[in-house]
Model the fold of this input.
Amino acid sequence: RKEVEQDPGPFNVPEGATVAFNCTYSNSASQSFFWYRQDCRKEPKLLMSVYSSGNEDGRFTAQLNRASQYISLLIRDSKLSDSATYLCVVRSNFGNEKLTFGTGTRLTIIP
Amino acid sequence: DGGITQSPKYLFRKEGQNVTLSCEQNLNHDAMYWYRQDPGQGLRLIYYSQIVNDFQKGDIAEGYSVSREKKESFPLTVTSAQKNPTAFYLCASSIHRGVSYEQYFGPGTRLTVT
Done:
């Protein structure tokens, strides 16, 4: 089983809709979780960090379910500019400086 | 402007040649990282350094070497021993304050070896 698993998509969603995708992780000792967005042929950019049960930033909400070992990302009122690949990232413990990356979920917002 | 710079953006080399990719940061971050990204795969860690003059192998270190002589700089050498060097190489640095941890990436270098 991969350490971090994501549905690769693609998710094709009409503008203005709400979209959610999940990510599962295998290491129950994982402490910190992140969502990055990556545009085509660019570097990943940090979107949100999740240290407790969840985090909200404008139209974006990340939720953590430790019992089931998954993190979700919800995007409300989606914009064309939200089209990107979303990477789920896990850090095992606070003393560990290494991150484990999922392969990403590709999202396309359709006008 | 604070940030991470990588140069060059595109690099072309012939098989059998060593090549060094540059990474500089002025964020005063202690830790720095090198990843490679291949189509359809997640980022894979090559090397990382948590402090000057110290570095550790990541998951795919074979065929690569690094140095960390200054806090700001973490160059990566792709040697001729690396079997599949063509990839997108990303440098990152991180800051860790209590429970908070954030890792940021440079713009990347696309290396093509023929």
